[in-house]
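Human: We require from you a protein record containing the residue sequence and its fold in C-alpha cell form, and nothing else.

Assistant:
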Amino acid sequence: MAACLFCRIRDGEIPSKKVYEDEYVIAFHDLYPKAPLHVLIVPRKHIATINDLEEGDAELAGRLFLAAKQIAADAGYGDGYRVLMNCGEKGGQVIFHMHLHLMAGFNDSSRDHA
C-alpha cells in the first residue's frame, strides 16, 4: 500500500527514529510524543485496523505486545508502561495501519488515569 505512511516508513522511504525491528514488526519514536517515551509499534504486514485482523494474524498481533515488553525494558521502563491501540476513526485512529502506542515515563501530574 504505497500511500500508507507507516508502509513508507517500513520500506525506508520516510526516515524514522527506529528503536526496534524484527521480521514481524518495526518500532519508532512518535513524532508528537504524549509521554517521555512514546513509541509506535507497527506490524510489517499492512493491516488497516484491529477490525481487519484475521485468524492467521493472531501471532502477529501478539508479537506487537512482545515487542512493547522488550522496548520498555530496554528503555528502563520494564516495571511500568502503557500500551494503547485505537481502532477506526471513531476510536481515534488517525493512520490506518494498525499500530500499538507504547508510552512510559509518566509522573502523577502528566498522566490521565484511563
